[in-house]
Design goal:
alpha/beta, 7-stranded parallel β-sheet, about 25% strand
């Protein structure tokens, strides 16, 4: 039994979600091969070779994979994946984009966002916004899986010594092209991998009021998130959204400020280790998952918390 893990990377380093996915692969059992597809990605491949548990790294270094276009990557993974029992990718924007195409090309089913490996052919995944866990068994010859990073601990980034093997396959579908991208730059930790997250909801009132959360987050070394209600109201950009249709996070500490706790938001943060809720409505659903709750005006409470940090 052999497993192909698609690596998330920036051509220079491996992203954290890949380490969580490798832990899921370890739970399945068998040889773990990591595919690094990119352009000028030798450094990322070398980093992947050092990950504990990895037996081989496949490096597909070609301009066709320089911007991770799903049409090109899916064709590559589908061709290489024919020789594996399992194909895994993190349940990130990128993984969710190309892996269903891989499943279609291989004519197999995909199992999405697994959070536990029961056996090599049976997995658990959340359904109904996380209110129920489905146990899914696959009889397909090749299991195609996206892995929810928050469901697994990260594998050690060092300790391995896998060989790096070049892959000559170049798949350019010619059906799409990279036009450009705008990257949000911040000195704060990346939201999906932050150990502390401070999030604001509709109760913040407007976007300007988020400055009190930014100030608290900077003191805590935290990332800043938001509920869908805050994003839909235009308070903050949608890359800050936490929830079922946003980013799924599981930090050591999650501080929910002015967030009522709609089921879609809870699905994205309820696996946090410690949850602190601040809301003036004592009946707000967020308190049902909070370890600590403060009922009161957030504009009084947050500044007081910041003074204590």
């Amino acid at each position: 039994m052999s497993i192909l893990v698609y690596a998330e990377h920036d051509n220079a380093s491996i992203k954290g979600a890949t380490l969580n996915t490798i832990t899921a692969a370890k739970a399945i059992g068998g040889d773990i091969h990591v595919l690094v597809a990119g352009q000028g990605a030798q450094a990322a491949a070398d980093a992947a070779a050092k990950i504990d548990g990895v037996s081989k790294v496949l490096l597909a270094d070609n301009a066709a994979y320089g911007h991770q276009l799903a049409e090109n990557v899916s064709a590559l993974v589908a061709e290489l994946g024919k020789g594996y029992s399992h194909i895994l990718a993190p349940a990130t924007t990128n993984g969710k984009n190309f892996l269903p195409r891989v499943a279609a090309l291989l004519d197999v089913n995909q199992i999405s966002e697994i959070t536990k490996v029961v056996s090599p052919d049976t997995f658990e995944r959340p359904i109904y916004a996380g209110n129920a866990i489905a146990t899914v068994q696959s009889t397909d010859a090749i299991k195609v899986l996206t892995v929810r990073p928050t469901g697994f601990d990260a594998a050690a980034a060092t300790g391995g010594s896998a060989a790096v093997e070049a892959v000559a396959v170049a798949k350019d579908a010619g059906t799409s092209k990279f036009v450009g991208e705008e990257l949000a730059k911040s000195d704060r930790p990346e939201l999906a991998g932050a150990k502390i997250v401070v999030s604001g909801g509709r109760g913040m009132g407007n976007g300007d009021n988020f400055k009190i959360l930014y100030s608290l987050a900077d003191k805590l070394g935290a990332a800043v998130g938001a509920s869908r209600a805050a994003v839909d109201a235009g308070f903050v950009p949608n890359d800050m959204q936490v929830g079922q249709t946003g980013k799924v996070v599981a930090p050591q500490l999650y501080v929910a400020v002015g967030i009522s706790g709609a089921i879609q938001h809870l699905a994205g943060m309820k696996d946090s280790k410690v949850i602190v809720a601040i809301n003036k409505d004592a009946e707000a659903p967020i308190f049902s998952v909070a370890d600590y709750g403060i009922v009161g005006d957030l504009f009084d409470i947050v500044p007081q918390l910041e003074k204590l940090v």
